[in-house]
Structure formats: C-alpha cells, structure tokens
Specification:
With 506 residues, the protein is an alpha/beta fold. It folds into four domains: 11-96 and 255-323, Rossmann fold; 98-252, Rossmann fold (3-Layer(aba) Sandwich); 341-406, no CATH class; 414-505, Orthogonal Bundle (Arc Repressor Mutant, subunit A). It has helices at 24-39, 58-71, 99-111, 122-134, 150-159, 206-216, 232-241, 272-278, 282-290, 305-311, 326-339, 342-355, 378-387, 398-402, 424-440, 445-458, 463-474, 482-489, 491-505, and strands at residues 11-14, 43-48, 93-94, 115-118, 164-167, 174-179, 183-188, 196-200, 203-204, 221-225, 248-252, 255-256, 322-323, 359-363, 366-369, 375-377. The radius of gyration is 32 Å and the shape is elongated. It binds one RNA strand of 75 nucleotides through α4, β7, β8, α6 and β13.
Length: 506
RNA sequence: GGCCCUAUCGUCUAACGGUUAGGACACCAGAUUUUCAAUCUGGUAAUCAGGGUUCGAUUCCCUGUAGGGUCACCA
C-alpha cells in the first residue's frame, strides 16, 4: 500500500564530533533538537562527525553515547546495533563510514563545475590571507586555480601535485536564510571565498559532509550552536549546487562562564562526567540546561523531560547567550534530591561512601564498615542518609555529612563541645546528664526526643544540654540534631561517644 | 581587521507599543531552631548610551558602546 503523501515529517539531528569530553554545552545542543523532534512526533538522528581521524577517538564517542543515554536523550535511527556496546537499538551514523557517499557528490560537483581542483600551496594561501587582512578585507581564497584550463588540471593531477577540492563560490551575490530563532540573516558571498570542500575524493571536510548528510538524511530542521552561523551560507550554497533544497535552520546561543566567555575549565566544570561524579542528578541537569535559553512563558520552572517535550517551542528560545550559574543548578539539584525516595537516594549515595573508603560491599545490600569491620545493612545506611535528606545539594556531599557514623573514634577539638560560656565542668555535667537519661530509657526515637527535650527545657538555655551532646555524637560544628543522631547510632555507640567526649574534657 | 550575532535586577528570565517593569536563584532581614540546612514571611536590586518614529517606547528604526562568534587542507 502506498502511503498518502503528507506534509514532511520533522527530522532533526545532533551532530557532535568525538574529540573530547562530553561538554555540558554540547548536551544543550543535543537537547533542543531532541525536544523539537519529540514534541512534533518527528525523528531525532545522531550523527557522529568523525571525519577528522586524527582528533576523533572511540573513547570520546563512548562517553558521548553514555552521556546521552544517562540524560535520557535517545535517538531513533542509524545502523542496527550488532555489538553489545549500545543500550539503544541503533548505533549512530558515523561520517567515517560514509566516504563513498561523499565521493559520489564530490565527483558530481567536479563534473558540473561547482567544484574545482586547487594546487596552491598552504603558504601561498596563507600569504594571500595576510595581505587581504592588512588592507581591511575579508581574508578569503581568491586563487588562480579557479579558472585553470582542463588540460592543466589533468596534467597536474597526473603529476601528482598536492591539491585540494574547492567550491566555486558564486561571486558578488548574497545568501540569506531565515533563522528560526534570529530571523533573517544575510551574508555576501564575497566574505567566504572559495572554501575547501575536500582534501581529496575520499577525504571530504566538514562543511561538505555536513551539507550532504543533512540532505541525505532528509533533515528538516538543523538546530545547532551559534558558532555555526558563518558555516550556514556555505552549506546552503553546497546544497543548492547539488540540486537540493536546504532545511530550516535555528541557531542556539552559547553558554558562557561567569567570566562571560565561552564556558571553559577556567571558571567551572565543563564535562558532563564531572557533574555526574559530583552527584548532580540527570533530571536536575536537564531541567537547568533547558532553562538556560528557554522558558515556557509561564512561572513554572520545574520540568521533567516529558513535560519539556510537551511544552517545548522553538519560538520561546532566547537569542542571547546565557551564563552558566552553578548556584541555581545546586538549588534545582537539591530540590530533586528532596523529591527522591529515601531508598533511591540511599542507593545512589552508597557508591560515594565506598569511594571514600568508609564502607565496602560484601553482598547485595550488605556492607562492612572499613574501620570497625562491623557489618551494616542498606537499611541502616538509609537511616543515616535520612538525617541529611533535606540538606543535601549534591550526592558527593553525603560523605562529609555522615562519615562520623562509620568511625570508631571521632577526631575533633575539645573546644567544639563548648556551648556559649560553659565551663569544662559544666560540659561534663551536661554530658553525664544526657548519658544518664539515655542509659535509663527504653531506647527509641520517641523516648529520646521526649526525655532529652524535657530535660533541656528545664534549663535557661536548651543549648547547654543539646549542643555538647550533639558535638560529642557528631564531632562536627554543623550536623543533624542530637536525638536523631543518637537514634541512628544506637544506644551503645551513643554512650561510648559521650564517654569519649568526657574523657577528652578531663 | 572583515563578516555575523547579542544587549531587562549580580545570575536565569517575563512583559499585543500603555504594567507600581513580574517570577526564580543568589543576597539581606524576620519566624522556627542547640548548630547547619530545609521550610514560611518580608526586603534590596534591572530596561547599555544617544538620537529618532509615536499621544505614549523595555518593546520599532538608526548610530554609538560593550560582549560574543567566525574567518583552517578542524568540526
């Protein structure tokens, strides 16, 4: 059955090159075309632009794929997977596997005169550019090879002279396109010159491969970073020379660091992996990144991926660059952590505790505490995590927050036990009082709370009882409350810690 | 240097040409509290500058300024 021809289904692509760590800004240029495709029930394509064999590495591609997967940005098309390496059913398209396609179009352009061989040396080209720059003109190639007689070209080729393939850019005309985000953009062909399409028939370069693939893959909307604006007219020219119609374009602004420069390692972490390791949740990063340059026009700010898809629209994308502001990311991350179930949160915290050498996994949901050798079940760790569920901004912080729960003896200055103007003797008395109460009650949360607070309320300042106790139990200036901690620690450990503190004071 | 893009609180941003220029993060103050968070309440804080167009410009136009991108046989 022949399907009725409907209006073009939307197809977008994300076309990264695997030449380094997966940048947080790269995630954003993946997210927007993804959202646009999903919103419009279209197709989202992943195309790895690895024509630069020198710089492209498999490890970077792996990191890229894992990162996208972690964020929930999945692509729809590509060669069917036959290795177990991928989580999705398709591996991405790779330009390194498409040289035949590029060759075909290159030959076509050479044959119809849209492209030509150039035999100028790098030095000649460079010198010309320097000169043009010095007289205030666009530094572009305007070489002699453009109109080399056919016979000369063939002769040179036969001689094996080094050459490249250039585009015969139409002179003295303008290329314009309607950017979906920025509106009309017009560029004169005089400012681009005859740029290089390929080093040779089997080594096509970026502008050419990109243009060819966008039409070959029937991309309807090219959504990419602002840094590609200058490439767009070139690619449009190539596409038209090939006899196709160009897609629509939308150029996203860049993410800037706090120094208002392109986000770089100088001012913050830049790779997604670093954020992941630091304990940022994918849903928080997603929410934050989406709102850097986009908003729904309402006051709703918390968005899941599905909600983003539902409300996404290209018109709401901001034209200006946004500064990456970690404080807001921290806030959103804390928000998502608070929303997480305690069980899930605990499971995500465990790897951090293991990495910090506080515990070691010995069986499913069972661990041993490194320092004491004691066995501990996930449920008990859960109680510790619960103490800080509301305070946590990123998962990695859990280590410094609950490390005291796993230690045999705490190391802290005696000074810490002192609340306001208490004397040593008063602190000892206070701790003894707490110890008596804890020793004599039936040990549970309610009793702890009730008896200790009752005693504290008798004093002019509750801190006189509660501060020394809390400091003795946690060894920290800031922590959760003493009753909560005592309950998590258990009766025996609680009493030992009070005794240790008293000993310190004597 | 040429070309291109951008410009609202410190930051992310909202505002059919008519609003006391709104919200969020951060910050400050208060409430709560043994501490630190969390939470609640309140507050400080912005239309880059100069010209137009208009009865009226954050909004439209021009110029300037500032910032960014790009000018590879990289992508």
């Amino acid at each position: 059955m022949i399907a009725k021809k409907e209006e073009k289904r939307i197809r977008t692509r994300f076309a990264p090159s695997p030449t380094g760590h997966l940048h947080i800004g790269t995630i954003r240029t993946a997210l927007f075309p993804f959202l646009f495709a999903r919103k419009n029930k279209g197709t989202f394509i992943l195309r790895i632009e690895d024509t630069d064999l020198e710089r492209s590495k498999k490890e970077w591609e792996d990191e890229l794929l894992m990162g996208l997967n972690w964020m929930g940005i999945n692509w729809d098309e590509g060669p069917v997977v036959n290795s177990s390496n991928y989580i999705g059913e398709h591996s991405p398209y790779r330009q390194s596997e498409r040289t035949k396609i590029y060759r075909k179009y290159l030959e076509q352009m050479l044959a119809d005169g849209h492209a030509y061989y150039c035999f100028c040396s790098k030095e000649e080209v460079e010198a010309q550019k320097q000169y043009l720059m010095s007289i205030g003109e666009s530094p572009v190639y305007r070489g002699a090879c453009r109109d080399l007689p056919k016979e000369t070209v063939e002769k040179y080729l036969k001689e094996g002279r080094p050459s490249v393939i250039r585009f015969r850019t139409p002179t003295d005309t303008k290329v314009s396109f309607n950017d979906l985000i920025r509106g009309e953009i017009e560029v004169s062909t005089e400012t681009m010159g005859d740029f290089v399409l390929a080093k040779d028939l089997d080594t096509a370069l970026f502008n050419f491969t990109c243009a060819v693939d966008d039409v070959e893959m029937e991309i309807t909307h090219v959504i990419r970073g602002e840094d590609h604006i200058p490439n767009t007219p070139k690619q449009i020219l190539i596409i038209r020379a090939l006899g196709f119609e160009e897609p629509k374009y939308a150029h996203l602004s860049l993410i800037l660091g706090t120094d208002k420069k392109k986000l770089s390692k100088r001012t913050s972490k830049t790779s997604l992996i670093d954020y992941k390791d630091d304990g940022y949740l994918p849903e928080a990063i997603l929410n934050f990144i989406a709102f850097l340059g986009w908003n729904p026009g309402t006051e709703k700010e918390i968005y899941s991926l599905d909600e983003l898809i539902a409300d996404f629209s290209i018109e709401k994308i901001q034209k200006s660059a946004a500064i990456f502001n970690v404080e807001k990311l921290d806030w959103i991350n804390g928000f998502y952590i608070r929303k997480k179930s305690l069980f899930d949160l605990t499971k995500e915290c465990v790897p951090y505790l293991i990495r910090a050498n506080l515990i070691r996994e010995i069986a499913v949901e069972k661990y041993s505490i490194i320092e004491t050798g004691e066995e501990i079940h996930l449920e008990e760790i859960e109680k510790m995590v619960a103490l800080y569920h509301e305070r946590l901004k990123k998962l990695s912080e859990i280590v410094e927050l609950i490390d005291f729960c796993f230690l045999k003896e705490l190391d802290y200055p005696t000074e810490l036990l002192k609340w306001k103007e208490m004397s040593n003797q008063e602190i000892i008395d206070s701790l003894n009082k707490s110890k008596d109460i804890i020793s004599n009650i039936e040990f549970n949360k309610q009793n702890l709370e009730k008896e200790l607070m009752e005693e504290a309320n008798k004093l002019t300042n509750r801190g006189n009882l509660l501060w020394p106790l809390r400091a003795a139990l946690s060894g920290k200036k800031n922590s959760a409350g003493p009753m909560e901690i005592a309950f998590v620690l258990g009766k025996e450990k609680t009493i030992i810690r009070i005794e240790q503190a008293i000993k310190k004071l004597k």
